[in-house]
Design goal:
The chain contains 17 helices and 14 strands. The protein is of the alpha/beta class and 426 residues long. Helix 10 (249-263) runs antiparallel to helix 11, helix 11 packs parallel to helix 17 and helix 12 packs parallel to helix 13. [4Fe-4S] cluster binds at residues 27, 52, 113.
Length: 426
């Protein structure tokens, strides 16, 4: 098994600038856009306003003739004013939905800012509807409100809501937690099968009848760095979470797999045989895509909670230099292995005061800024190259075969500026 040295002291103990002010982020409802693709027998019913419905339609790009697996139960003025029984109204909406879509096996009631403001108890509604329409249908609830969260926390809240309902098992098994595109999940399965790591449970499972179980023999590997609530929920069920760098790039993927190989007693020779070829492909692909990135500076505005693993990948594998790494929430336990690999130097910030952070950004003028959609166009108008943070969540970016594509996502805006004559060609 290849051993990776850490030539720098890392940033685990580095000071963190904590900011609390105006934020620029999407709300957690946006997570539905990739979760509904991951679970084809699930339906997401947002209990919210017409604004919530417009947001989801816009984010997903659903055509007028499509049959999406999400919808919004609109809270009208009478609901908001307490003039109607919202629970009875919700029961009627769900009954109409199930009459039209009897194929639904998992129904998520998703809270929004309006439903939380009027204190609508969706947990009670989920329990009642499960009793009415079960056992073929399970109804769960979670909050996708953007009042205090960022958009990736919608996935975290959804998966955490699923954990208490998972059956108990004493079997020693690996559980991989975090939604991955199907093609990436299949690649991961191939690597784990090659290493002989089994049985394997996935959260979320693609279908309700393949739902996983959890217990004291469950070892959990996270593939997304924003699953703090899911991690805590699994630990409450007795599972043990392995801390490792996240599988972004060749190095992160190798270290993630190496942690699992140690846990399950995989021989070093077998590890090398399984990973050598895809590692070599990943290194070649990253090296080619990173030609436009070497020596460039980058800043991350807090958005997706992917910022630290991506900064590690870009600085260690692509030759970039991080100026500031902002993240909505810095979970030191989960991100400790990433901080260990990150060279000292960049400002680490948690939370956001957007005006102060923009002042620092304008003073530093990095070659590339990773930020949300709301800030990208204004920064581009000021002559700063930007990368949309949300694209890094929607795109396949995990594990070896996507490492070159991940580097390419960051190289593209710099190459585009060079073609337009805004920057000298690398």
């Amino acid at each position: 098994m290849t051993r990776h040295e850490h030539p720098t002291p890392g940033c685990r103990d580095a000071p963190v600038l904590r900011e609390r002010g105006q934020r620029e982020v999407f709300c957690g409802l946006t997570g539905i856009v990739w979760l509904h693709r991951k679970m084809p027998d699930a339906f997401f019913l947002v209990v919210g306003s017409r604004t919530c419905a417009h947001l989801l339609q816009s984010a997903a790009g659903v055509m007028i003739f499509a049959e999406p697996r999400f919808a919004t139960a609109i809270l009208e003025e009478t609901d908001l004013a307490g003039m109607a029984d919202a629970q009875e109204e919700l029961d009627r909406v769900v009954a109409r939905l199930l009459a039209r879509r009897p194929d639904i096996r998992r129904l998520f009631l998703v809270g929004s800012c309006p439903s939380e403001v009027i204190k609508l108890d969706l947990g009670r509604a989920a329990a009642r509807l499960s009793a009415t329409h079960g056992p073929a249908l399970r109804v769960l609830s979670y909050s996708g409100s953007g009042i205090e969260t960022t958009f990736t926390q919608g996935e975290d809240a959804c998966l955490a809501a699923m954990v208490p309902a998972l059956p108990e098992t004493p079997v020693r098994q690996l559980m991989v937690a975090g939604a991955l595109p199907d093609v990436v999940e299949d690649q991961m399965r191939g690597l784990l099968d090659g290493l002989g790591i089994a049985p394997l449970a996935l959260l979320p499972a693609r279908r309700a009848d393949a739902a996983c179980a959890v217990g004291p023999g469950t070892v959990v590997a996270l593939v997304q760095p924003f699953l703090g609530d899911t991690r805590a929920a699994l630990e409450r069920r007795g599972a043990r979470v392995i801390d490792a760098p996240f599988p972004f790039g060749e190095e992160g993927t190798t270290l993630w797999l190496a942690a699992l190989a140690r846990e399950f007693g995989v021989a070093p020779e077998r590890f090398e045989a399984v990973t050598a070829a895809p590692r070599a492909r990943a290194r070649r692909a990253v090296a080619q895509a990173a030609e436009a990135l070497r020596g460039k500076t980058i800043s991350f505005l807090p958005d997706s909670q992917l910022e630290l693993p991506l900064a590690r990948f870009l600085t260690r594998e692509c030759g970039m230099r991080a100026v500031e790494i902002g993240t909505p929430y810095l979970h030191r336990e989960m991100l400790g292995p990433e901080l260990d690999l990150l060279a000292p130097g960049p400002v680490l910030s948690e939370g956001q005061d957007v005006d102060r952070q923009l002042d620092r950004l304008r003073a530093a003028r990095p070659d590339l800024t990773v930020c949300g959609l709301g800030l990208a166009n204004p920064l581009e108008a000021e002559g700063l190259a930007t990368k949309w943070a949300i694209e890094l969540v929607f795109s396949p970016v995990h594990f070896y075969e996507q490492a070159g594509d991940l580097a390419g996502l960051f190289a593209r805006p710099l190459r585009r500026r060079a073609v337009l004559g805004l920057e000298p060609a690398p």
